[in-house]
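Design request, tokens follow.
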């Protein structure tokens, strides 16, 4: 079920916006004009992406240890993480961003990998 996350205007190019949606720690990004949503928790050692992430085009790098993920799919494109970043469906309606945290599109972040 989609739930309201934040006004669309809060999500800006190159920034990572942290929102809590139904208790889920979510990071929002603007990529190619689209709002995308991932877990805010890096699956490598649980650093928070809104504090430690850097956006490079369509990827986000976790500066804690350098793991990099494709924002749209959560695919891990650079180690040390070998797990993907969880992603969520995002929609913009009437100037508001809605996220469906029940439709997680990758394994939940950071539950299976040691530091
Ligand atoms: S916690 Fe993100 S790369 Fe290690």
């Amino acid at each position: 079920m989609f739930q309201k996350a934040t006004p669309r205007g809060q999500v800006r190019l190159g920034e990572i916006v942290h929102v809590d949606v139904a208790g889920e720690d979510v990071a929002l990004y603007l990529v190619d004009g689209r709002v995308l949503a991932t877990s805010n928790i890096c699956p490598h050692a649980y650093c928070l992406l809104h504090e430690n992430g850097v956006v490079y085009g369509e990827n986000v790098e976790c500066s804690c240890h350098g793991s990099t993920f494709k924002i749209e799919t959560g695919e891990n494109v650079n180690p040390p993480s070998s797990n993907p970043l969880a992603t969520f469906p995002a929609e913009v309606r009437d100037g508001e961003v809605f996220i469906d945290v029940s439709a997680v599109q990758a394994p939940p972040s950071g539950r299976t990998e040691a530091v």
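Comment from the thread starter after seeing the answer: thanks! The chain has one domain: 3-103.
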